[in-house]
Write a structure and sequence with these properties.
15 strands; 15% helix; single chain; 15-stranded mixed sheet; mainly beta; outer membrane lipoprotein receptor (LolB), chain A
Length: 315
């Protein structure tokens, strides 16, 4: 083989390699833009640290002493785990809150706007009036045995825990910060861990902050077994009386088999709310049910008298 022929072959080989290198960016490399929900492809993700997020939660909690809200409510009874969820549209509700733990919710039926329910809690006990069933229920906030009637599983405290995120207790709680950023997510997850009397760590809550605006978008509250008690999602944060508050709050209680979407129509923050606004008394003539105790106001009918040997009925 001549050196000239070999040189020509080498030149052609080098030209082929150069051509492949020149075209590799368009043929062998695929570029794609990542567009995250609520942002633009070129938007820079914000960064923060654990201490800043803990401080933000505390500041927001301290900024709200009371609120008086009018909301549109979409309750949903059932659970996705059982494959059936029933939604009720166009329910108007009023929510009153006063620190430390007073909360009252009044719901009105669609169109006719008659009262559908009225419930109040002081943080440990609750009262619930259901006019359509002529029933008045009271008991502890803690649900021991869920009712087949999902409405009876509602607790004002469930709403309060979702509406106003309590701050981190540095004495009894520890925190871990996770940066979950991938093709689909861009969020900081602040896990709140409590310590049991035996010294075992238990996951209590998770707070999700999206990285486009560093706003709270989700709160998960767990039971000691790690099951989700509350899954609350927040969106469209707006200022009411110079305090940021989410306009839409989606609350799910999977174990209690109900959920509700709240959309704020009107919100007054830090106005005076008197004691009578949180006073719910049992209406006359209603049946009283005390949870955790025998039902009151629903006394069993007396047993029929048994005939004696003469055919007379004993009393």
């Amino acid at each position: 083989m001549s050196f000239a022929g070999s040189s020509a072959a080498t030149s052609r080989y080098l030209c082929l390699i150069a051509l492949l290198v020149a075209t590799s960016s368009s043929c062998l490399v695929r570029r794609r833009n990542i567009t995250r929900k609520g942002g633009q492809p070129t938007q820079t993700l914000l960064t923060t640290d654990k201490e800043s997020l803990i401080k933000e939660i505390a500041q927001h909690y301290e900024a709200v002493q009371t609120f008086n809200a009018t909301v549109d409510m979409v309750p949903a009874l059932g659970t996705v785990n059982k494959g059936k969820v029933t939604e009720y549209k166009d329910v108007r509700a009023y929510i009153l809150f006063r620190k430390p733990a007073d909360i009252r919710l009044i719901g009105l039926y669609p169109v006719v706007r008659n009262k559908a329910f009225d419930m109040v809690s002081n943080g440990s006990q609750f009262r619930l009036f259901i006019p359509s069933k002529n029933r008045f229920i009271q008991g502890a906030n803690q649900i021991e045995t869920p009712s087949a009637n999902k409405l009876e599983n509602w607790r004002p405290q469930h709403f309060l825990n979702a509406l106003l995120v309590r701050p981190i207790d540095p004495v009894s709680e520890q925190t871990i910060l996770e940066n979950l950023t991938d093709e689909d997510n861009a969020a900081y997850i602040l896990s709140v861990i409590s310590i049991t009397p035996s010294g075992a760590p238990v996951l209590d809550r998770q707070l999700w902050f999206e990285r486009l605006h560093l706003q709270l978008v989700r709160q998960l509250i767990f039971d000691p077994s790690g099951d989700i008690l509350t899954d609350a999602r927040y969106s469209d944060w707006q200022k009411y009386d110079n305090v940021l508050f989410p306009k839409t709050i989606d609350i799910n209680r999977p174990k209690d088999e109900y959920g509700v979407v709240l959309t704020v129509v009107k919100m007054d923050i830090n106005t005076t709310l008197t004691d009578e606004r949180f006073d719910l008394q049992q209406p006359a003539g209603t049946d009283l049910q005390v949870l955790g105790a025998p039902k009151m106001g629903m006394a069993p009918k007396p047993a029929p008298a048994t005939p004696d040997q003469k055919g007379n009925r004993r009393k």
